[in-house]
Amino acid sequence: MERAYQILVVDDHKDIRDLLQRFLQQHGLRVMTAADGNEMYKHLNAQRFDLIILDLMLPGKDGITLCRELRAENNIPIIMLTALGEEVDRIVGLEVGADDYLAKPFNPRELLARIKSVLRRHFAIPNVEEQTSGTPKNYLFNQWLLNTTTRELRNPQQALIPLTSTEFTMLLAFLCHPNVVLSREDLLKLVQGRGADVYDRSIDTLISRLRKKIETDPKQPKLIKTIWGGGYQFSCEVSHDAH
């Protein structure tokens, strides 16, 4: 990695915290640890972190609750850890905004690889921007505004709506192709940046997360429509400017 990213490990098992801290520091990362949500917030209030490794089963507020709270405030990358390996747990973690998910027990090298992948996806220019020559700064749709420089999304009331890096890239893909039916394969090609870990089944989860943020009624979406047998369509007029 080109710079020493700051990582926060949140896990109630001291042995796991100490092991991950030693291992990740040996590979050029700066690491701090927390045993629960209270310690996590103390660290977050004191300094900036590039990524959080968040255990699902924690005393007090669990990882799902903490992840949901974090997502309501910022787009810091989150990798969730859990002793549970059921698919439903993975889906719930992704739905509340986790960028990746790893079941215990795991090889620390696999976690390191996932950290690198998530950080690349978060800090690198995504594929959809590379494919769009002269990407405009501002995209406007249905009185919403997406700023591609700051990666900020504002609703019609000008309130800031936090987006993960993958949610931002997915929304930008739609805004670059309004009123066009995009298959899951199309979306995968547009969303996958260098080292991005996006797979076919996660497209639906990303769509669900985006709908909850921009649709008036996510269960009856009017912006991101499902085209049965075809994929998805962003059914809205989109305008943009360069300033």
TrEMBL record:
Gene3D superfamilies noted in UniProt: 3.40.50.2300, 6.10.250.690, Winged helix-like DNA-binding domain superfamily/Winged helix DNA-binding domain
PTM annotation (4-aspartylphosphate): residues: 55
Keyword DNA-binding attached: yes
Highest taxon of source: Bacteria
OmpR/PhoB-type domain: residues covered: 136-236
DNA-binding interval(s): 136-236
Keyword presence, Phosphoprotein: yes
Keywords carried by this UniProt record: DNA-binding, Phosphoprotein, Transcription, Transcription regulation, Two-component regulatory system
Domain Response regulatory positions: 6-119
PANTHER family: DNA-BINDING DUAL TRANSCRIPTIONAL REGULATOR OMPR, REGULATOR OF RPOS
Protein name per its UniProtKB record: Response regulator
Species classification: Bacteria, Pseudomonadati, Pseudomonadota, Gammaproteobacteria, Vibrionales
